[in-house]
Amino acid sequence: MDTMKNTHNLLTAVLLLFAGSFPLAAFAQGSLTPPGAPAPIMKSLDQIEARTIVNSANTPGDGNNVYIISQPGSYYLTGNLVAPLHLFGGTAKNGIEITANNVTLDLNGFALQGAAGNAGIFIPNGQTNITVRNGTISGWAVNGVSSGGYASVNQVFERLSVSACEMGIFLYGAGVVRDCNCYNNNSDGIYCGAGGICSGCTAKNNAGNGITMGGGIVTACTVQNNISRGIYLVPGTATGCLVEGNNQSGIYVDAPGSMVVGNTCIENNSSSASSEAGIYINDSNNRVEDNHVTESGLAGIQVSPDYTLNIVIKNAVIGNGANNYIIPSGQIAGPLITTLGTITNANPWANFSFNP
Fold it and tell me: For a tag site, which of 55, 233, 259, 335 has the least CB within 10 Å?
């Protein structure tokens, strides 16, 4: 027992010795006083959806319009818009009129239904920086989209499906129309009067031209079964398009300085009109290159005898017999390759002409 007691006393002495040599450290503590009231961490409704709903409270209309957007900003629909009937001499209304610059309108997947109203989207003057997207527009007596100002610029219309209107999308000024579908309209599917770009669109079964372009580019579009022409250039560029089954020309050029490059034209000019063709050129100084044209009514590629200095190179035309190419004098055309088998003509500008 004495031994255990002595050992305990020895250990206690050692511990006291070390404690004196190495004092315990004291750690500083922060203030216990809170800095202020707790701040909210939830987002407000305006932060979650900063856009404005199109309705009678935010965008009230008048006797000619169901709704009017008169201030810059971003707007959206929360339901379908159906124009009221205008019986017994009442006024036909536009769906949504945009009178301000710098407006984005998202139809949000909803429909503007005309019930024989005026225009679905109406942009009356020279408004700029306008974007309309994501919805269906149908049944309007004038146009699905109607932008009437020649001075209008920076207008974008995208991902719209427009049907059973007078014209599907009508732009008097310049703009961009992309990824839109225009079906069964009473005149042109898409009309761009002063340039711009029409890309990735479908224009089908319209009673006028599928696409009319004045001074811009039509690219990567599908244009089928329209009563008039598929693509009408006055002037413009058509490139990378599928143009099929249109009653008159697949692509018709009616102004100088146009380019028709890299398109596929199938069974156009079903009316077999003498002044229409798979591709018809009705002016001077145009370029027709690298197109594939098959089984058109009357002629594959035809140049009007009234004009000169058109370039026709590197095309392939099949199925119109002697009328695969009708190219009068005064043009610049690559030589024709008409024989089957290995190509022996090394001319890089040659055109191909075959008949099954």
Answer: 335
Which residue type sits at 257?
G
Q: For residue 122, with 0-12 CB atoms within 10 Å meaning exposed, 13-18 middle and 19 or more buried, which class applies?
A: buried
Please tell me what DSSP assigns to residue 217: E
Q: Does residue 16 sit in helix, strand or coil? A: helix
Instruction: State the CB neighbour count (10 A cutoff) for residue 299.
Output: 28
Calpha distance 324→81 (Å, rounded): 50
- Please provide the DSSP assignment of 286-301 as one string: -EEES-EEES-SS-SE
Token digits of residue 306: 């009234």
pLDDT at 31 over 70: no
pLDDT at 89: 53
Sign of CA dihedral 330, 332, 333, 334: positive
**AA identity, residue 212:** T
Segment among 44-48, 61-65, 308-312 with least mean pLDDT: 44-48
pLDDT at 167 over 80: yes
> What 8-state DSSP symbol labels residue 84?
P
| Cα distance between residue 100 and residue 55, in whole Å | 17
Q: How far apart are CA 107 and CA 113, in angstroms?
A: 12
> Cβ contacts of residue 160 below 8 Å, gap of 6+?
107, 132, 133, 134, 135, 136, 137, 144, 145, 169, 180, 181
- Contacting residues for 10 by C-beta, under 8 A, at least 6 apart: none
Proportion of the chain above pLDDT 70, given as a percent = 84
For tokens 């079906």, name the residue.
183
- Tell me the CA distances in angstroms from 306 to 2, 237, 279, 313, one per residue in order: 134, 21, 16, 20
Q: Domain boundaries in the chain?
A: 49-207, 248-356
To the question of pTM greater than 0.70 for the whole model, the response is: yes
